[in-house]
Amino acid sequence: MCRRKRRTKRHPDPRSVQNRRFGTRLALKQRSADDGVPEDATGDLGDRLDQLVRHLVSQGVSLAQARRIFERQFILASLQLNQGNLSRSANSLGIHRNTLRTKVDALRIQSSEYRPSGKRNQSK
Hints:
Layout: H1 14-34, H2 45-58, H3 63-81, H4 86-93, H5 97-106, H6 111-114
Helix pairs in contact: 3-4, 4-5
């Protein structure tokens, strides 16, 4: 009796991999072109940002310092908007909750800066 070797696929169909890659690239292109930000939200943002950047540069603030300041304020605003809820804030920022927790620790953001005063914030 002759045994047939069973053929197994070692790799998925290359056409499907290519299709998935192309779909991802296409989705990224569409997302970066649109960014999902309403135009009314960015109205005079460019002018105000330009003024802020010029001010920071004239004060001798490095790019790393400016990035840290901006990231801290951006995260703090999101946390305040979401009443200190890390999961909702992470979702709105487009990052994982654990990444947000790490950034909050690294930027030394205290819970008293973003949590509304209430039972969780009181000392026992």
